[in-house]
What does this fold into?
Amino acid sequence: RAVAADVMTEELSEYELARLETIRKNQLAFESMGLGDAVAGLRAAASRPKLPKARSKPRPAADPSARRSSRRLSGEAAANGGLVDSDGETDHPAYRDPNDVSAMTAPELKAWCDALRADVLRMAWVERLGEEEMRRLDGAQEWLPPLLVFSSRF
It folds into this structure.
């Protein structure tokens, strides 16, 4: 047995040898305190096979009509855009953000941009604009709607 231990120690790394030495010192310390038998008892208790788990009772089969289902996955359209009031009412049209330019038709977008331009023209700083700056502001009617539609997609 001593020959086998020598062969084993030659194959172990430095870390493994240090670990075995630490274990040996700990065993000696336990024995010097009279706890050698207690450690052996703890090891035996830890290695006992665990009891098999009790099987759960089978559940009764659920009523298929009571199961929840997705209207979207079944191909059915949601009523009123799928919106429901806190009291369960669905008799209102789906809400649409009035400033969401991505959902606007071309005439709606033009009216929205015109209203935006009118709001800007009422601002006090517009009076200080020169002729060139006013021309640029008027030119925004051409490039603003496509820019808004483009930027709303991000």
About this structure: The radius of gyration is 40 Å. The CA atoms of residues 129 and 137 lie 10 Å apart. The helical segments are 2-11, 14-32, 36-46, 71-74, 106-121, 131-152. DSSP finds six helices and no strands in the chain.
